[in-house]
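Problem 3 from the worked examples.
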Amino acid sequence: MDHKGVFARKPVADIIASEGGAFKALPKVLGPFSIVAMGVGAIIGAGIFVLTGTAAALYAGPALTISFVLAAVACGLVGLCYAELSTLLPVQGSTYTYTYATLGELAAWMIGWDLILEYSMGVGAVACGWSAYFNSLLVQMGLGLPPDLLSATGERIVRADGSAGTAIADVPAAVIVLVITGLLIGGTRESVKLNNAMVVVKLVVVLAFVLIGAAHVNTANWQPYIPPNTGEFGQFGISGVLRGASIVFFAYIGFDAVSNCAQEARQPQRDMPIGILGSLALSTVLYIAVAAVLTGLVPYPKLNVADPVVEGARAIGLPWLSLLIEVGALLGLTTVILVLLYGQSRIFATIANDGLLPPVFARIHPRFGTPWISQLIIGIGVAIVAATMPIDTLSELVGAGTLFAFVLVCIAVIYLRRAEPNTPRPFRTPWVPWLPLGGILACLGLLAGLGVYTWVRVGLWIAVGLVIYFAYGRFQSRLRAK
């Protein structure tokens, strides 16, 4: 195999001319409101309802608000790059397609493989949070599930009678993934309508918590604002703020999932920038507000629980608000699962359509107009992940995968400005190359905040991806066959 084959690029003109090729059968049903709702549906979820507590209690303390600002700055820089590429190449595949047009086939495969990790672990982490809120709601009705069925396989648990044991699997997490998978197979239009309704309810719940909670904040809980470092990197202090930013960065991955909507958008050149940047801006404001109110209501060491926002509502002393938040959290986390499963299936199908995975994964259902086999296989795989892996491991893996993808998106903008200067760009990222370079540096800084074991796991995933490519993908590539 020669280097030209490994680094063969898919020409931008060919990508634009094909307008999705095999995916022309996908119906164009998404307008700007639906795309913003898809973004908010993916972003406002685990970051508010699950990770705020973990990141504040273990890493950043009240300075979690700074962590959210740092993550938002990095996402804003990258979001502008996504906006340009999603209008330049309004087709399926997101970062995978952009990388294929810039750095070549091997890099595209690796980022596609990386995105599979990102979305799978992302859905798994969110499903774990969904399970905790679901059981909390059941407990209020006297129907709580046994702890054996509520934690990752092998995790230590304490049963109601005080006896210790190990969990079998997180059953509700697996069930919700399979239910959403069935919904997505049934059609994009129906899934979007449900997502829009749930997003509206979710925003009402989040705003209710912020407005009511702000009146009950105890400012003493914000002291010290940046807790002193414990002597270990990432545990409070400045390094803890950075580590917290790396963790809550997971909360922002929804806006890059929006780029997978391009093939089904009615007017992608107009609607995609609105969807990406609008959802990112709205979600950032809400994240910072919730983090400030939550750490003002509850001392940060007490927030390392599965349902931290409900803990904040309990501190206010309004039972009806706790119930409202639990319902809103369930809906919010459901929309995140829906959007991430949607995005992953589209990337999976695009990779298969290029020949780097078996073509069966690109097959479109003749009635529902969805990549149903891809969606089904992903749903089953992610359900197993959600049932067996702990949420902290899942969230760090998502952060690493997302940051790698974002770095390549910034590189793609710089490269295509030089390689394809005359190609029409309905949306142009300002201050190229300086703004994309800022995005690259911000992402690399957040990568530095991840733990050693996360790097080991990501390295193993990359090694498996290389084996698959050199054993299968390089021989089946449609681009190289031409």
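Problem 4, a separate protein:
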Amino acid sequence: MKLRVVAAGLVITVAVSGGGILATGALSREPVPTGLDDASLWLPEPPTLPNTLGGGAVRFATVQSESARDQRPLPLLQAPTIDAQPPVIQPPLSTWSRDIAPGETLDVVLADSGMAASDRASVALAIGAEYDLRRLRPGHSLTVVSTVDGGPRTVTLAVEDGVRIEAVFGTEMITQVMAPETEVVTVAGEAIISTSMFAALDEAGIPARFAVDLAQMLGGTVDFRREMAGGERLRLLWREARVGEDRIGQPDLTFAALEIAGSLYEVVWPDDASGQATIYVDGDALRVFAQPVVGARLSSVFGRRTHPVFGNVRMHTGVDFAAAHGTPVQSTAPGRVSFIGWRNGYGRVVEIAHGPDIMTRYAHLSTVPESIAEGQRVAAGEMIGRVGETGTTTAPNLHYEVLVNGLPTDPLVDDRLADAADPEVDNAEALARLTEARARLVESLG
């Protein structure tokens, strides 16, 4: 029974399949479009073989050889060479700056900036090579530019007169001193003295330190305390260096004219910075005098005073001129060097004999030139040392003494040094200098 059912299914299946095939064949006998029928009959033309020379076998071999050569691996492409270097990315920097306070050292200020001890030592070594760190004063300023790790990139110390000492740290350490470009101008001023010369100059807007220069020059010629009654006219001509409107450094007097008790006292300073000035009375050359320190400030006078170190009242046997460490010190008159060395309290000293009875002493010096020796003659205005703070002193200064027969005398009043060592004055040349100075004063005041 089962066999008959299976056989019947196969018969039906074959019948259906045959019917489908017959139907498909019937459909395929419909006419085909002419264009499509032609396209079905198209065949590509056979390729034209190239002409050969002397046989196809040789030509075929040649073609095969070229084809094989062309199929060799191509060379690798080389990256183009770029001449320009990629930009160097600078690390971020931080800047710190402040002024130096009284009593501070460079190391203290650097520590306040957060700099490590090893870096502080390197900075002190670099800046100290160009600037005496003992000269640090309030008002000086320090600027530190640091990298992200706190190491110094540049350290700049700004000191007096617009001068800056800069230390640059990188692949190598470089220290340089940079001074501003200045313009030297000539200035004139006039003052009427009522109470004191200092007060008169200050009120007239003239540098009051010029009173020290005039006291040095005219102290042995004019008794300011007795002869000045008030109302005297003082006219001055000086040079000063400027950066814009700011004055840099100390000004230098070139001419002064002071009328006292019916007489005209005039002083002409030279242009060669020798400090040798010519003093005139009523137009006649009186003497030539050299200042011990040009441009210094008179910090202590002759006479009894409270000692700045010991605190008791003592006799001050000279005058003190406050000046920067290293400022040149000059002989005030021609003479012979009688002593170079150290004396108790005075520090390093140079003493010069001006004849048998008069001697000048220059104390607290930092150095003495190797060209200066005992027994050597020196001229007025010749450099014999530099300002220092050796011996018993609180700051750089020159202690200047004049001794007559071994006894100290007031250098700003006693004129015996000038009388004993007064050089010959060329009256014709001196008169020409005076005439020129008067003309410059009139022009500047006008």
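Solution to problem 4. The mean pLDDT is 79. Residues 222 and 232 are 13 Å apart (CA to CA).
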